[in-house]
Design a protein that fits this description.
The complex is a heterodimer of chains A (420) and B (310). A 6-stranded mixed beta sheet of chain A has the order 2-3-1-4-5-6, with helices on both faces. In chain A, strands 7-9-15-12-11-16 form a 6-stranded antiparallel beta barrel. Chain A contains 8 helices and 25 strands. Chain B folds into 2 domains: 197 residues, 3-Layer(aba) Sandwich (Rossmann fold); 82 residues, no CATH class. In chain B, the strands form 2 sheets. Chain B has a 6-stranded mixed beta sheet with strand order 3-2-1-4-6-5. Chain B has a 4-stranded antiparallel beta sheet with strand order 8-7-9-10, with no helix packed on it. The two termini of chain B are 38 Å apart. The chains are: A alpha+beta (420), B alpha/beta (310). At the A-B interface, helix 2, helix 3, strand 2, helix 4 and strand 9 of A face helix 1 and helix 2 of B.
Chain lengths: 420, 310
Amino acid sequence: MVLRIATAGSVDDGKSTLIGRLLHDTKTVFEDQLASVEKASLRYGDGSLNLALLTDGLRAEREQGITIDVAYRYFATPRRTFVVADTPGHAQYTRNMVTGASVSDVAIVLVDARNGLTEQTRRHLFVASLLGVKQVMLAVNKMDLVDFSRARYDEIVAAATQHATALPAPVTLNPLPISALLGDNVVDPSDNMPWFTGRPLLEQLETLELDDDQNIGARLSVQWVIRPYSTEHHDYRGLAGRLTGGTLAIGDRVRVLPGSQQSTVVGIERGGVAQETAEPGEAISILLADDIDVSRGDVVVSVAASKPPVVADQIVADVSWMVDKPLEVGSRWIIKHLTRTAKAFVSAIETRHDVVTASQHSTERLELNDLGRVHLNVSVPLVVDLYDDHRPGGAAILVDEATGMTCAALMIRGFEGDLG
Amino acid sequence: MTLIDNRLDSVHNDEGLDELEDEAITIIREVAAETRAPVLLFSGGKDSAVLLHLAAKAFRPGNLPFPVMHVDTGHNFDEVIEYRDRLVKEYNVRLVVASVQASIDAGRVVEETGPRASRNRLQSVTLLDAIAEHQFDAAFGGGRRDEDKARAKERILSFRDRFGQWEPRAQRPEPWNMLNAKIRTGEHLRAFPLSNWTELDIWRYIAREEVPLPSIYFSHRRTVIERNGMLLSVGGPVVLEPGDVPFEETVRYRTVGDASCTGAVRSTASTVHDVIAEVAAARITERGATRADDNFSDSAMEDRKREGYF
């Protein structure tokens, strides 16, 4: 099974070097890529092979020796396939970390052994917790620069463990001492740190077990209604979308939300091929027994769902603010939730999360990189889940009508006005 | 067991392909629903063949709700044009051809001169002109993040301003892979449903789905010259320089692009399964092996993307 990893750290913590090391030591790097890195190492560095240049693909990144944007990398070992979202540690740091964490099973948080836990480290741990990433590899890097000191490592791990107790949701910390530059405890065990009895990073990632998705009942947010209008398929009306939440089978009774219409599933197709059942994640189209009014944005939900979504037009959500223009009480945005696009009005800002101390502060506005909790009124009813119950139905984005820019990631924590 | 053994192992199953297909179809449906006039860019290459196959699947049993567009450099492999026309009939889609020759004739671009001249770069202007002429607001492309270090940084939806430029520092975040397709007048977006596929995934999918491909992807005898380690076909747009010695070789193409700058590789792989075994064992990325235009500089792809390239 694929393991999705987000990496996070401050500037110069060695993230890109670590990923370069993983790609290099798992022999994922092709000869021409290595040649190109060797050439670039001469131009941008001291001439020694700079593995960070494998991931820092943009010219400005190479020139400044920094990572600007989230980069996705793929590598495989005989045991597992990995997708790494490498998220930068400077400007727009929270935005990138949130984006990377939103699609990840595990986060690698890098700490520079010389600096210990920084504001950024605490921020990354907070973001992982807020986004529901439950497994964190705490990689204490640059151990070579602190003489591979066990005392220093223990001190950092203790501080991180202490901070983890104050996070909004529990995360499992898996600490280990590494040197990304020299390769200690990355792919191979370290000769320099015999006192560390744990396994190297790659081996831990290869064997990490993840919780299965909760089965809370099948739902399909309609993306597109397939109507061929051909003689052969005269009355065909396929509701196309991606199934989430549970298994759906022919014969299942379903409800179409918002509203009270019910029907029975009489056909399931995937890529035009009929099947009896569909599993979560599959892009399918379904046929219903009754000719009822269903269009894009509606959600088809199994009547038997153990935890059905709720129809609501007022939501409470944690928000990661991603643009310079601030979020203020009374401001209006476009909200995109599942396949529904609507308008949203900020009725209140409940709090700004202080990610360093993991405490709450009242505020009038949220600025770039802020995390907080807001109340929104939405122009039409949404079919929502709590983020912790079901990510697809509990996540949303806000868009600036004027610029078209994506401004925020939302994690739904509550709703009012159950219209169900 | 080495990585290569592992890759060869995965050749014999279709692990991960269903998930990639589900993701791509979801992206295609979402962009089709959220934009006014999308178009699918079709080069005749394997990635666009897979893209067309997926798009057809996304709307079955209905027809594809948008046309396909071929940016024709005029430097084509005959086999590719024949293939393109056959596919258009098979999938019952509307074809729009945007011609680089027409752009040259209209004075929109100036043909590069000299023996290393290529029309690859000129395609960007033709593409942008065609997008404006047909008022397309979204173009599906077959780009993958594993192709190049600049592409690795590109989002699934990539925004182009009114000059068609890509600004890597102003990309829209895509948390949970949620797509925001909102654009302003004059802007358009590129959508990359194959972002998370690798070259090997493409071939495994071609094998599983029996996606038809142009014949030049499989080994054949061809007269070529060797230039900077690349094998370029003789008899087409490539201009011979003093010292070039044409010879016959058993080759195939790993990518299909402008015939003036797309190189062949020595290969005896004559079936899809031969090709998969070859790709799984390859130690050079497909662009490194076959694209003269990317070897110009470290940032060649980034520079072309900023100018509006695919």
